[in-house]
Design brief:
Helix content: 25-40%
CATH class of one domain: Alpha Beta
Strand content: 15-25%
CATH topology of one domain: Rossmann fold
Number of helices: 9
CATH superfamily of one domain: NAD(P)-binding Rossmann-like Domain
CATH architecture of one domain: 3-Layer(aba) Sandwich
Shape: globular
Number of strands: 13
Strand order of the largest sheet: 3-4-5-10
Oligomer: single chain
Order of helices and strands: EEHEHHEHEEHEEEHEEHEEHH
Length: 298
């Protein structure tokens, strides 16, 4: 919107909150539609006079998806199929899809490039996102659309509704004497602050490349779960917190499907002029600071 585009948001609010859009709702170049990407009628209404779709809707809690694969399939794969089916009947020319680093599974190469193979996701979430990538590629090639697929690292920000930072803050607010940490604490991953993520998506969309382009998006460093715990404790001003590691599953993972080590090769997206402003550690630290500030303002 700051670049002058008109924006329409289609959201079921299953996991989001409309108040997150309060600063936008009265702007003339913004429109909010409450609906579901799995419902063709809702999608059809949102697609009127639209040139490009940024498709972020998904079930994204990997830990929960193992218990309900059908939900993950419907909210990820079925919603993407429904969108693409309606798009091919419309005047939409661009489809920007938020995939995930989870499609790589336990990659044997780090940093992992976009052309890494074979792709063997270890979670239902990663599997549905990989299937979505294939759908996006096939529809773009078959029906004359421009497709951009981005594979972000773990995205963090003050409005996180799940994930390690959210969980640690919530646990310590309930009991600051100890912190339960899933796994053995050595899980090490790249994190991306939400503002950096948004800039990457816009840069990639404005790139005039092939019919379908794929970009990794992430910070250049990693941070372990144990380090995240220390950052959260420090930013919350706590002392004497006991860390209790659960030991995890399958060699110290936090849960089944948890990728233990992730770092992305991001030279492709950087060639477009993008680079993250924050490291993984700084992204985690700023997220905790903003979460605490937001809670204090409520």
């Amino acid at each position: 919107m700051n670049k002058g585009y008109d924006a329409i948001v289609l959201d079921s609010l299953i996991s989001g909150h409309k108040q997150n859009l309060n600063t936008l709702l009265k702007k003339p170049n913004f429109n909010f539609i409450r609906g579901d990407c799995r419902n063709p009628q809702d999608v059809r209404k949102a697609l009127e006079n639209i040139e490009t779709i940024f498709h972020f809707a998904a079930s994204s809690d990997i830990c929960l998806d193992i218990a309900d694969p059908k939900k993950c399939y419907e909210q990820n794969l079925l919603s993407t199929y429904t969108l693409l089916e309606e798009v091919k009947k419309s005047n939409v020319k661009g489809f920007v899809f938020a995939s995930t680093s989870a499609i790589y599974g336990d990659a044997k190469v780090a940093p992992t490039p976009e052309n890494y193979a074979p792709l063997k996701p270890i979670s239902v979430y990663g599997a549905t996102k990989l299937a979505c990538e294939a759908l996006v590629s096939s529809y773009c090639n078959s029906f004359g659309m421009k497709g951009v697929i981005l594979r972000p690292a773990n995205v963090v920000g003050p409005r996180c509704s799940h994930g390690v930072v959210h969980d640690f803050v919530k646990k310590l607010e309930a009991n600051s004497s100890y912190l339960e940490i899933l796994g053995d604490g050595t899980q090490s991953k790249s994190y991306l602050y939400v503002d950096d993520c948004v800039e990457a998506f816009v840069n990639a969309y404005e790139f005039d490349g092939d019919c379908v382009e794929i970009f990794n998006v992430g910070a250049d460093d990693q941070v372990s779960v144990a380090e995240i715990a220390r950052i959260v404790v420090e930013e919350m001003g706590l002392d004497g917190v006991e860390f209790r590691f659960t030991g995890g599953v399958d060699g110290g993972r936090g849960w089944i499907g948890d990728v233990k080590n992730m770092l992305l090769e991001t030279s492709r997206i950087k060639s477009l002029g993008w680079k993250p402003k924050l490291s993984s550690k700084d992204a985690i630290r700023l997220t905790v600071k903003e979460m605490i500030k937001n809670r204090g303002a409520q």
